[in-house]
Amino acid sequence: xxxxxxxxxxxxxxxxxxxxxxxxxxxxxxxxxxxxxxxxxxxxxxxxxxxxxxxxxxxxxxxxxxxxxxxxxxxxxxxxxxxxxxxxxxxxxxxxxxxxxxxxxxxxxxxxxxxxxxxxxxxxxxxxxxxxxxxxxxxxxxxxxxxxxxxxxxxxxxxxxxxxxxxxxxxxxxxxxxxxxxxxxxxxxxxxxxxxxxxxxxxxxxxxxxxxxxxxxxxxxxxxxxxxxxxxxxxxxxxxxxxxxxxxxxxxxxxxxxxxxxxxxxxxxxxxx
Length: 273
What we know:
- The protein has about 270 residues and is an alpha+beta fold.
- It has helices at about 15-20, 135-140, 145-155, 165-180, 185-190, 195-205, 210-230, 235-240, 250-260, 265; strands at about 10, 20-25, 35-45, 50-55, 60-65, 75-80, 85-90, 90-100, 120-125.
- The mean pLDDT is about 90.
């Protein structure tokens, strides 16, 4: 499995976020890497509130959080968010997050399709009975990254999981979509994998939580977001063609719907609505 990537794809205004928080990624213990892409840790101490915005990946997240001015530590499971995910940060706080690989959450919750959690955030205890308030406190109050990562490892290693070749297949297929810009149409992709379109859609609903078409479009929006945030000379018509859009207007519409503002406005530093 690949090590944690260091890019900021999906984060809206990453420089603004990274000026305000300490953000790190760490690998999980080796037995967990089949299921978990990385741990992500954030700490903040803000003089005024800040809203962070993320265009999510097709992944389920488990988070242990502590808003120190608001109350006790707690934990949540967040399914794949269909739109932009916004989190308001205030005062002092921290998050210790687990980003499951696409397909990697299902072995921990095999009784339901991953699509059951799509668009939902719920107390982690509803999925993992061991994710109590004491568990959250134990993880987020550790003094340093090494200790927090060790606590996350200990929690996940103690959970029952059911290895599933179909989960591994889903993980591999999403990885191909993310890495290969030539994957543009679901029918062509399904045929290349020796699957019918319907079988591919069922696999993604059960193990990823969203459709293959959603994944293709989301990763292309990530690419457009990255370019809009780092360059001012983007040829949007050419990029739209490269990403498989019928024309520039379709790309701009999808970007605006997802991010909240057109790509040119984002490139000029406008804030999402």
